[in-house]
Amino acid sequence: MSEDGFDTPVEKAWQQYRGRLADRIGDLLPGQTFTIGNDENLCTATYDIRVTRTAAKRIRVTVDVMSVFSEDNHVLTHNMTALRRIGWRLLNDDSFLVERYDDRVDEVATLVVTTLREVYRVIDPSFLADPDGSSTPVLEPVVEVGVRVRDSEHLRTLVIGVIENATDEPINFDDNDNDIPIATEPVPTWLHIDPEVPRLILSAPLTHRISDPTHATKVVAEQRHLNPYITLVPRGRHIYAQLVLEATVFHPANLISALGNWREFLSEQVPLLIELLESGNDDADDAEGDPDETPAQLRVLIQLDPDATTLSPIEVARLCNGNADLLVDLVEFCQYQCLSWRRHATRSPDAEEAAFAQTELERWSGTTEQLRGALRVVALPDIGLDDAAAAS
Length: 392
Fold this sequence. Notes:
By secondary structure, the chain is an alpha+beta fold. It has helices spanning about 10-25, 75-85, 105-120, 150-165, 215-225, 250-270, 270-280, 280-290, 295-305, 315-320, 325-345, 350-380, 380-390; strands spanning about 35, 50-55, 60-65, 90, 95-100, 145-150, 180, 190-195, 200-205, 230-235, 240-245, 250. The strands form three sheets. It has a five-stranded antiparallel β-sheet with strand order 1-2-3-5-4, with helices on one face. A five-stranded antiparallel β-sheet has the order 7-8-9-11-10. A hairpin with a 2-residue loop joins strand 10 (about 230-235) and strand 11 (about 240-245). Helix 1 (about 10-25) crosses helix 3 (about 105-120) and helix 11 (about 325-345) packs antiparallel against helix 12 (about 350-380). It starts with 7 loop residues before the first helix and ends with a helix. Residues about 1-5, about 130-145 and about 280-290 have low confidence and may be disordered.
């Protein structure tokens, strides 16, 4: 298996785990079994690898077919191909099987570790629960190690591995984008990977309706005393909540803990914060109309190019008067629309509604890329113009 961006400490942790696993398998007596599975306190993914020593002095390893099933055809195909390549064979409609003579415990341990990493995408042995010790001593705990982050690409690889392992779902986003969407309630979340320093920033929009800056400033100041780890950040008429996680040395448990605290903050405190932030807006709303509606420049762009296929980045930049701040606001507006339509597309029980949501998602995604191209033209005129000319 390739390192896939994992640093040396993680590889050493897997080597140590593989050695202890081989010892544990070698200690089995005929008829004894133990199970390798996930730590339910760290992730929701479910898998059980059962290791048995048979009376015929063979080591038998089995996994349940449903543990590698996925509704994503690409993921399912990957899992099935990987299992065959590693050496598993389908025993029946219920399980996969590997059998080796009991003098090949090292080979069995290597096969199990490869399966955990390539099929179940376990990025670190600290995610694994101790094998049940009902008939033999429990495998000694794995020492938790951190990974020293090399750059933003390395950090993104580690973050994606943790989130996919914790949710048991693949993440779909642009490989060149450092913002990972995370479905949360009552507002969506974006996990930003800082391209300059090893740092993660969880961010969520609390309101787009701030029309009384003095009132909002008071709420922001009070929040600092209530939760020192989460900051409210004003950006024009918008207020965002942020949690910053330094990641010079990355460990999965730190990110999982931060995500847990973040979700608790969103569910328990954000509804009241939104109400407080918007409580001074009633009079202003009467005078200004609904500030949550699609911005004027974006309405014009959609009218001119509803499928985001005809206008060039230069034309979009001109439409927005070369205003980089406006383009940033429009990109963020479109990103939230994408997140909303993606949720409808994946959760709607009605096939027609899901298809409609998917179409809207594709249109908003196209418009987002148009605006990003325009922002590149405005913010990086020399590079942006060259890119725009090449694209046309």
